[in-house]
Write a structure and sequence with these properties.
The protein is mainly α. It is built from two helices and no strands.
């Protein structure tokens, strides 16, 4: 009679661990994307505030140095916006890769679960066949041992 293989539960656990790890990576990547989106929105808002401030000041209230400082600060904000936008694009690409990795891990988990179930069914069939043979042998012995025969 065949025994269930010990490797299937271990392989299922390993596949489940890979799915869990991939999901944890996705959670971190989503947090990073959210953080970068919030940073980008803050930078855009800040830039817009300074731009409106510059447009509103029609009279030369600010001195030349203050005006240059404000323009330089606005240029730095634009540079930061671009850098954050680049980081955001990379983070989104990483998130897409991690989702693919999780999908592959889920496929592998499903495959391992199916193989484990298939092995368990085969073992159950073997047990039934063994039990049926035992019953048949018992029936033949009783038949042969009966006084009428």
């Amino acid at each position: 009679m065949r025994q269930a293989r010990n490797c299937w539960p271990a392989l299922v656990r390993k596949a489940q661990d890979a799915v869990n790890e991939a999901q944890a990576d996705i959670t971190q990547a989503l947090a990073r994307v959210d953080q970068l989106q919030a940073s980008h929105a803050r930078l855009c808002s800040l830039y817009d505030e300074y731009r409106l401030q510059e447009q509103r000041s029609t009279a030369p209230v600010m001195g030349m140095q203050a005006s240059m400082n404000q323009r330089q600060f606005m240029a730095q904000l634009l540079t930061l916006q671009q850098r954050v936008a680049t980081d955001l694009a990379k983070a989104k690409a990483t998130l897409t890769q991690m989702r693919r990795k999780r999908l592959l891990a889920e496929v592998e988990l499903h495959k391992m679960q199916s193989l484990a179930e298939q092995d368990a069914k085969e073992v159950a069939k073997d047990v039934l066949r063994y039990e049926q043979r035992q019953m048949d042998e018992l029936g033949v012995r009783r038949f042969n041992a009966s006084p009428m025969h």
